[in-house]
Amino acid sequence: MLKDITLGQYFPGDTLVHRLDPRTKLISVVLDFIALFTANNWLSTAVVALTLILAVALSRIKPRALLKGMKPLMFIVVFTAVLNLFYTEGHVIAQFWIFRITSEGLRRTILMVLRIFLLVSCTFLLTYTTSPLQLTDGLEQLLRPLKKLRFPVHELAMMMSIALRFIPTLIEETDKIMSAQKARGADFETGGLMRRARALLPVLVPLFVSALRRADELATAMECRCYHGGEGRTRMKTLQMHTADHLTLLFWIGVLCCVIVLKRFGL
Amino acid sequence: MDTVISIENVSYHYPDAAENVLKNVSLAIPAGSFTAILGHNGSGKSTLAKLCNAILIPTEGRVTVNGLDTSLEDNLIPVRRTVGMVFQNPDNQIVASVVEDDVAFAPENLGVESAEIRRRVDDALRRVGMYEFRLHAPHLLSGGQKQRIAIAGVLAMQPKILVLDEPTAMLDPLGRKEVLSTVEELRAETGMTVLLITHHMDECIGADRVIVVSDGQLVMDGAPGEVFSRVEELRALGLDVPDTTETLYELRKAGLDLPLDALTIDACADVLAGLFTKSAE
Fold first, then answer.
1. Residue B150: burial class (beta carbons within 10 Å; 0-12, 13-18, 19+)
2. Quick one: closest CA in A to B121, which residue?
3. Whole-complex ipTM
4. Is there a contact between B92 and A218 if contact means CB atoms under 8 Å apart?
5. Any idea where the domains of chain A sit in the sequence?
6. What residue of A is the nearest CA neighbor of B151?
7. pTM here?
8. Mutate to test the interface with A, among B65, B95, B99, B134 (most CBs of A within 10 A)
9. Rounded mean pLDDT of A129-135?
C-alpha cells in the first residue's frame, strides 16, 4: 500500500527540457514566478501562459499529469476565486440575495485562478523533468555563494540526497514491520482517526530504532570511504551549461521584460 | 613478505563496556595474503577489523598500516584509502540513489579529478561485474549485487588492502557465492591483501591463513587444514567445522584412518573415493 506514494515525482525522458542544466531550470522557475507576479493584465498573463504551454509541449509531459497534480490545491483555488469574485468593489454586473458580482471581481478572479494554475504547473514541470538528485546538485551549486555566510550548503545537499536515497529503503521497511504486526493481529484499517493513529505507534517505534541504527552504520561506512565534509571534495559529474541553457535563460529574461512592458499598457 | 598491517599488543575498551573487547592482541598481516578471521558473535572480531582503518583507535598498543600509525590524526585519510572496508549490511553502506554515483563517492571525497573518477568508477564496476547496472537504483538490486556495489565503492579508492566484515551474513546462498567469487577474482587479478571476517567456516577454506578469535584473544592461527583439524577445540569454542571436515571427523571416530585436512569438496570426495577403492580391493 505504501508503494503507491511517489515522492519527488520524476518522469524520466530525453527531451530538450529534460536535458537542460538543473540550474537553468531552477533560475527559469524563479524568473517565471517574478513574471507571473508582475503580470497584472490579460496580455502579460497570456504571454507567461504561452511560454509555459510551449515548455510543457517541449517536455512531452502529459497535460493530464499536470492537472492531476493540481487536485490537492483545488481548495485554495476555489477559496481564492470566491473571495475575489464576491468581495471586489466596482461595477455590478449580477446580483442575487446578498451576493454581488462586479466586472472587476470577475476579471480579477479569472486572472488569480490562472496565476495560481500557472505557478503550480511551472513547479510541477520542474520536478517532473528533473531528477531529485539533479535538483539537489543544482541547488548546491546555486546556493554556493551563501557558504561565505557560513550557511551549510554542502551539508544540506548531502542530507537531501541521503534522505532521497533512503526513502525507498524505509518505505520497504515500514511495509515489512506493518506486515509483521498484522500477522500478529494488529489492525490498521478500522476505527476512528485516533484509534488508527494509535495503531501506528508499534510501527513507528521499531522504524525509528532501525533508522537510527542505519544512520549510525552509514556514518561509519562514509568515514571508511574518506568522507570528511565538503572541503576539497570533487564531483564525477560536474554541471555544465550549454548553448541551450544560455538561450533558455535569455528567453526567460526576454519574457520578463516583455511582461514588464505589457504591464504599462494596462490591457 | 612485507607486513601491511601490524597490530602490536593491542587492547580495546568500548567506552560503556565493563571489560576489554580485545586483550593484548598482536598480529601481522603480510602483503598479498588472504587471511580469514573466525569467531562467534561478541568475540571481538569486528572490533579487530575496525581497528585496521582507524575507525577505532586502540586503547592500548599500536596499529600501523604500511608503517602509518592509525592513532595520528594526520594519517587518518592515508590509512583509510589504503584499507578499504566492506560491512555486513549493503543497504547501510550505499550513499547515492544511482549505482555509479555511489561508486564515485570515495574518489570524490579524496578530491580526485572528474575524468579520473569516471575511469576509476567504470573500472571498479567492471571488476565486480556490475558495469551494466551502473545507472540502476541500488534499492532495486539483489543483496549480492548490492554488496558487489559496496565492494566497487571501496575499490574506487584503489586500496591495497580489502577488509570484509561479515560481508555475506545478510545474503542468501546465491548472494554469498556471488560475493565470495568476486573477492576471489579480485585477489587473483590484483594480488590485493584480503582480510575476511566471518563466522561461516566454509568461507575460510580458500584462505592462506585462518585465525580464530575468542573472548578478545587470538586462540588459533594457522593454515585452514591445520586449524580445522582441531575439531574438539573448535567445538569447545562454540564454532562449527566445515561440512567436509565434519564428515571425515565422524568417519574417523567410527574407526577409519582418514586425514582431516581435505577441506574442499573435491579433496574430500577424493579421500572418500580412495576409501571405496581400498575396501574394494
1. buried
2. A236
3. 0.88
4. yes
5. 10-145+240-265, 148-224
6. A225
7. 0.82
8. B95
9. 84
